[in-house]
Amino acid sequence: MNLIILNGNIYTMNKRNPKAEALFIEDGIFKNIGSNKEISELINKSSLVIDADGKTILPGFIDSHMHLAMFGSNLYECNLVGTKSIEELINKVKDYISSKKIPKGDWVIGKGWNEDYFNVKRLPNRYDLDKISKEHNICLTRGCYHMCVVNSNVLDEIGINKENHEINNGIFDIDQNSVPTGICRESAMKLVYSKLPKVSKDRFKEYIKLASNYVLSRGITSLCTDDFMLPGIEWQNVIDSYTEMNRDGELKIRVYEQCLLPTLEYIKEFASKGYKTGIGDDHFKIGQLKILTDGNLGTRTAYLSEPYSDDNSTFGIPQYTQNELDNLILTATESGLQIASHAIGDKSINMVIDALEKLPEEYKKRDLRSNIVHCQVTNDRLLKKFKKLNIVANVQPIFLNYDIHMAESRLGPSRITNSYNWKTLLNEGIKVALGSDSPVELPDTMLGIYSAVTRKDLNGFPNGGWFPEEKLTVDEALHGFTIDAAYSSFSEDIKGSIEIGKLADFVVLSENIYEIEPENIKNVKVLKTFIDGKLVFDIEKI
Ligand SMILES: [Zn+2]
Fold first, then answer.
1. What separation in Å is there between the alpha carbon of 341 and the centre of ligand 1?
2. 55 and 75 both lie in a single domain
3. Which positions fall inside the Amidohydrolase domain (predicted)?
4. How far is the CA of 343 from the centre of ligand 1 (A)?
5. Roughly how many angstroms between the first and final C-alpha of the chain, as a whole number?
6. Do 83 and 89 touch, CB atoms closer than 8 A?
7. How many angstroms separate the alpha carbon of residue 238 from the centre of ligand 1?
């Protein structure tokens, strides 16, 4: 059987042939692309013909960085996104415990709160959570995933108290009497996470299925996802789960796994088992080594070269020394692993670039395509090096929804002009791959395109856009979510555009996003999603 699409308003993302009307698909591949007349002539008795009725068709979206399993676990656990007060947070978790009938002594896990959205802007603390329950272990992670709050039970369990609350590369917040408040930042949060119950492979697969169904409804057909950071699961089980799902026909989307391996020992063990970038098939592939070099601006843990403008006592929290980072990046490169380094502050970005520059010449000559994920605070000198080292800027435009309201006070009037500067990145000739970092934000590509094009939050603030000279065009944003995201994962030869010979992944939209008001892009619906030429999401069937 073959599939024929006629009467489409097709934007191919192929610069040589940017527009088309019709597609001929066989064996999951675009076999022909052209006008209605050309493709109609190919109809035979085994053709399934779909009339697209003039609708806009684009290549399937590729999310350049997210956390699929964690997004799935959020759909499964207590969802605290959008909570407006500490009272509401308490009530949501109480309701969750009773609806799921969670026994006393068990863990209660919630995610997604952010005190900036509370009516009274203070962090929740152990005493708030003790009102929910003193007999469960409660851990509620902030939407940024760099901080959590726990109840007194958890602090007792991990042995954190007035006398014992120091930790390297992290903070247990304390009150004026040195008593821990329940807020755990960075490695303090990881210590809590290390106590969480294990995630079985079956549960992991459940998360992936829940999350996949969601992203398919948003037109995402491929994603680069860091799942090793999901608390409670060994990295080998992540790979085995995906491999089994792929074998059993349960993996509906294409996954490029961004492997978070925090130490040299982990990287060596991983490599010794034969894993390196590119191992796998078109549905599940080992992607980059993910390295976390700092935190984020919201919690003042992104690592800056000058102190924070709204707290000059801190530069942020680096996760590695320069020497440690040099060794990680050298060992990874020797082991055939592409790098995707989370770096938000300019100092962190500088450290990653330093480490890449120190690689032996023979490695630097290779097509490394190192990704710097987020790269929010930059400067002209760093951008020149991006270009020289062919670093991909892996950017999350939807971050503006929150960061518009916070970044300027963190960075001050001067540094802010060098931050979130996406148009400048493109003008410098740097490849910009776009993603959502879900579950930090929703994996909804239309929201990402809206943010990139309008530079406004989801309420339309500010009028005219935030630093509007850095707006991307719709076409530039679409390239970031298709062919350039494919480039970031060494897969531009097989996907990211509608081209003869490529995988037949594409989406049908409710409206032509090139022609509507940019403000309305966030309301555009994905009507249908196809992978391998097969319909995997249809809005009429939900
Ligand atoms: Zn991330």
1. 10
2. no
3. 49-537
4. 10
5. 26
6. yes
7. 17
Q: Which residues surround ligand 1, an ion (CB under 5 A)?
A: 437
Give the residue among 265, 391, 384, 293 at the shortest CA–CA distance from 338.
391
User: What's the number of domains the chain is made of?
Assistant: 3
Question: Are the C-beta atoms of 404 and 457 separated by less than 8 Å?
Answer: yes
Instruction: Enter the tokens of residue 184.
Output: 């755990």
Q: Which residues, in sequence order, are CB contacts of 542 under 8 Å at separation 6+?
A: 217
Alpha helices in 58-166 (DSSP H): 68-76, 86-100, 126-132, 152-158
Structure confidence by residue, pLDDT tens digits, 109-122: 999 999 999 999 99
Distance 116 CA to ligand 1 centre (A): 20
Decide: 5 and 25 in contact? Cβ < 8 Å: yes
Q: Are residues 102 and 164 in the same domain?
A: yes
**Whole-number pLDDT of residue 231:** 84
Distance 160 CA to ligand 1 centre (A): 28
- Residue showing tokens 């935030």: 466
Backbone φ and ψ of 529, nearest 5°: -125, 130
| Span from the CA of 86 to the centroid of ligand 1 (angstroms) | 26
* pLDDT tens per residue, range 425-443: 999 999 999 999 998 888 9
Domain span at residue 137?
A: 70-193
Residues 400, 292 share a domain? yes
Report which DSSP code applies to 221.
E
Residue with tokens 């249809």: 538
